[in-house]
TrEMBL record:
<comment type="function">
    <text>Mediates feedback control of cholesterol synthesis.</text>
</comment>
<keyword id="KW-0753">Steroid metabolism</keyword>
<keyword id="KW-0812">Transmembrane</keyword>
<dbReference type="GO" id="GO:0006695">
    <property type="term" value="P:cholesterol biosynthetic process"/>
</dbReference>
<dbReference type="GO" id="GO:0032869">
    <property type="term" value="P:cellular response to insulin stimulus"/>
</dbReference>
<keyword id="KW-0472">Membrane</keyword>
<dbReference type="Pfam" id="PF07281">
    <property type="entry name" value="INSIG"/>
</dbReference>
<keyword id="KW-1133">Transmembrane helix</keyword>
<comment type="similarity">
    <text>Belongs to the INSIG family.</text>
</comment>
<dbReference type="InterPro" id="IPR025929">
    <property type="entry name" value="INSIG_fam"/>
</dbReference>
<keyword id="KW-0446">Lipid-binding</keyword>
<keyword id="KW-0153">Cholesterol metabolism</keyword>
<keyword id="KW-0443">Lipid metabolism</keyword>
<keyword id="KW-0256">Endoplasmic reticulum</keyword>
<dbReference type="GO" id="GO:0036316">
    <property type="term" value="P:SREBP-SCAP complex retention in endoplasmic reticulum"/>
</dbReference>
<protein>
    <recommendedName>
        <fullName>Insulin-induced gene protein</fullName>
    </recommendedName>
</protein>
<dbReference type="GO" id="GO:0032933">
    <property type="term" value="P:SREBP signaling pathway"/>
</dbReference>
Length: 232
């Protein structure tokens, strides 16, 4: 009898392995699919915001595109929306990834109503840069800087969000300077190395906004995974 029990247990062991491997592979496939969906959503949001905000800038004659340089879409160069969409996807996916690496999940104001208010404030900051007349560029830059920091304090308040915001805003401003220097487009009355001095503030606010959207999408995915795990 003991020998028969040992044989039976050995026969059962291989059968216990495949379900675990299958569950692991299914989890990896689900994570990959969710990552692709999140990236696509962030890309589309970035393209939409780029079209709307560029339209404001062009109507105000803040941004000028060469008439014979590129084909235009809604008064903008064709390559601007895809670039903004790609940057939005990278930023939106990077923020929750950094949170996981630091082991500090971001839970401050994690609901869609807060995210929508963040987007509204970001659009308002862009509207102010394009529509409101200030006495000089210094006053405009200081005002937008205060509004951008206020956006971070109201909807983020994380050190990782602040650091990534500054870093990405610096890189985006440097890239814009190179594009303007090469004549792909230009700003009217540039006052800071071919571009407007308030541009880093706009980039910073945009990074915080897309990071907020990316974190919210990642949190929704995490809740779905938890529910599936609980059901299993």
């Amino acid at each position: 009898m003991p020998r028969g029990n040992a044989t039976a247990s050995k026969a059962l062991r291989p059968e216990a392995v495949p379900p675990r491997q299958g569950s692991y592979n299914a989890a990896i496939a689900d994570q990959t699919a969710n990552l692709a969906i999140r990236g696509l959503l962030l890309f589309l949001i970035g393209v939409f915001l780029a079209l709307v905000l560029n339209l404001l800038q062009v109507q105000r004659n803040v941004t000028l595109f060469p008439p014979d340089g590129f084909a235009s879409i809604f008064s903008s160069a064709w390559w601007v929306p895809p670039c903004c969409g790609t940057a939005s996807a990278v930023i939106g996916l990077l923020y929750p990834c950094i949170d996981r690496l630091l082991g500090e999940p971001h839970k401050f104001k994690r609901e869609w109503s807060s995210v929508m208010r963040c987007v509204a404030v970001f659009v308002g900051i862009n509207h102010a840069s394009a529509k409101v007349d200030f006495a000089n560029n210094v006053q405009l830059s200081l005002t937008l800087a205060a509004l951008s920091i206020g956006l971070w304090w109201t909807f983020d308040r994380s050190c990782s969000g602040l650091g990534l915001g500054f870093a990405i805003a610096f890189l985006a401003t440097l890239t814009t300077q190179l594009l303007v220097y090469n004549g792909l487009f230009q700003y009217t009355s540039p006052d800071f190395l071919y571009v407007r001095s308030w541009l880093p503030c706009i980039f910073f606010a945009g990074v915080i906004t897309m990071g907020s959207i990316g974190r919210q999408l990642a949190m929704y995915e995490y809740k779905v995974v938890q529910e599936k795990t609980h059901q299993d």
